[in-house]
From TrEMBL:
Keyword Repeat: no
Organism lineage: Bacteria, Pseudomonadati, Pseudomonadota, Betaproteobacteria, Burkholderiales
Pfam families in UniProt: Biotin_lipoyl
Record-linked Gene3D superfamilies: 2.40.50.100
Keyword NADP among record annotations: no
PROSITE patterns reported for this sequence: BIOTINYL_LIPOYL
Record key words, sorted: Biotin
InterPro entries in alphabetical order: Biotin_Carboxyl_Carrier/Decarb, Biotin_lipoyl, Single_hybrid_motif
Source organism of this protein record: Aquincola agrisoli
Stated name of the protein: Acetyl-CoA carboxylase biotin carboxyl carrier protein subunit
Domain annotation Lipoyl-binding: ranges: 1-72
SUPFAM superfamilies, per the entry: Single hybrid motif
Length: 72
């Protein structure tokens, strides 16, 4: 299965990362949570797969549509 870039849906700060590299996830699993304007916005897996690479760490600022991880 080809790698898929997962992108942030909002501009904000990475509040919590729920997965680790190499971890298997199911479609809909929460990958990470972005805090934006005092709201917590969960980012869900678009499909089942394995986390290939994390491109952010907790506390990092992200922009809307920024690649935050790769799903294999």
């Amino acid at each position: 299965m080809a790698e898929q870039a997962v992108r942030s849906e909002a501009t904000g700060r990475v509040w919590k990362i729920e997965v680790a590299e190499g971890q298997a996830v199911a479609e809909g699993d929460t990958l990470l949570v972005v805090e934006s304007m005092k709201m917590e916005i969960p980012l869900a897996a678009p499909r089942a797969g394995t986390v290939v690479a994390l491109h952010v760490a907790e506390g990092d600022m992200v922009e809307e549509d920024q690649v935050v991880l790769l799903l294999g």
